[in-house]
Each structure stands twice: as structure tokens, then as C-alpha cells.
Amino acid sequence: LLVALMLNLLPLGRVLWMPDFLAVVLVFWNIHQPRRIGLGVAFVFGLLLDVHQASLLGQHALAYTVLIYCALMIHRRILWFSVPGQALQLLPLFALTHAITIVLRLIGGAVFPGWPVLLSPVLEAALWPIVSVLLLAPAAALVVAAFSGEPLLAHWTLTFMSAAAGFISQFFPLFLLGAPFAVLLGFPVLRIFNHR
User: Fold this and answer.
1) Residue 49 has pLDDT above 90, yes or no
2) 177: phi then psi, degrees, rounded to nearest 5
3) Spatial CB neighbours of 112, under 8 Å, sequence gap ≥ 6
4) 151, 124 in Cβ contact below 8 A?
5) pTM for this predicted structure
6) What is the mean pLDDT of the chain?
7) Distances in whole angstroms, Cα of residue 179 to Cα of each of 115, 170, 182, 186
8) Which of 99, 86, 1 lies closest to 42 in space, CA to CA?
9) Cα–Cα dist 195/116, whole Å
């Protein structure tokens, strides 16, 4: 959840079509672990996002609370579908979340942000299979490691940690050199989508 919150807090300017990563992850955990993460967590994360964006206090909190309530209402039924089917079932929920925030902004006196904002719920539904795999993979790997007959800690440290360290050491120079170039270039790719 914290990583999704950090993705939402990235300073990308006014990218209207940007998906709400926190909403996708909140829905995922409320469908798969409904007793651990609920309405209160969604409300608090919504308030944090409202404070960060200096928007109408409570708009994301209300939208996330309605989203999670709806997700909790269908969490048993949605697990019967395949992952792409789940994404189609969740598309109206993501659209409802964005509709709530847009209506609250319009009531608060803001102008309509534009039609590209309608792409955001579609991208969130498209992210659902990716998020499902990324968040279920560690649990599935833990089950496989537990039933493999090897010592659990040795299996994690020898297999996964060495592979993660190899990935980081292989691509660290790319990440390290990419950051200064992005700052020097001033994010020109993002300027294409910013209409200021």
C-alpha cells in the first residue's frame, strides 16, 4: 500500500490519464484479504492523498471509502472470475471512484478536467492483471517453498535474494545514469501530455 501511495505522490504534473495505483492496490487487498484492510484504511489513505494534493479535504477519502465498500460487497463473487474477467467487473467501480472525485471538484468550483480523465479507469482495469500477479507472486512462492522440502529460509536466501541482487547489480548503472539525464532533459515526454 505504501508503494502504491508513493506512486500516486510522484510529481508528474497534470497527467489526467494517470491511473490511481492506490485505488487498484486497495481494491486488490480488500478482495483478497477483506478482514485485514478495510474502510478505515481506505479513508486514511484518501485523507493522506487529499492533504498531499491540496485538494478538497475528504474527496479521495469519500471516493476510496465508496470504492472499498463496493469491493467488499462483491469480493466473494469476483473471485469466481478469471483475472481478465475480474478487471472487467472492476471497471465500473474504478469509473465510479473517478466520477465521485470529479463531481466533488465541480461542486467545489473547479473546471471539468477534460475527457482524457476517462482513460484513467480503463488503465486501472488494465493494470489489474499485472497487480494481481505482482502481489500474489510472493505468497505463491512462499507456498511452493514451504512444500518443496527444503529449509524455508535457505530457499528464500539462496534462490530469491541472489536473483534480486543480480538484477539490481545488472541494472543499477542504468537507473543511476537515467536519473540525471531525466533531470537535465526536464521530463520532455511528460510535457507532451501536460496542457498548462
Assistant:
1) no
2) -80, -25
3) 102, 106
4) no
5) 0.70
6) 80
7) 31, 16, 5, 11
8) 1
9) 11
Q: Which three cell numbers stand for residue 26?
A: 486497495
User: Residue 93: its pLDDT value, please?
Assistant: 93
181: how many CB neighbours lie within 10 A of its CB? 8
The secondary structure of 78-134 as a DSSP string is HTTS-HHHHHHHHHHHHHHHHHHHHHHHHHTTPPP--GGGGHHHHHHHHHHHHHHHH
Q: What is the DSSP track for 28-86?
A: HHHHH-TTTS-HHHHHHHHHHHHHHHT-STTHHHHHHHHHHHHHHHHHHHHTTS-HHHH
Angle at 93 between CA 50 and CA 31, to 5 degrees: 90
Q: Could you tell me if residue 20 is left (phi over 0), alpha (psi between -120 and 50 degrees) or otherwise beta?
A: beta
Neighbours of 9 (CB within 10 A): 14
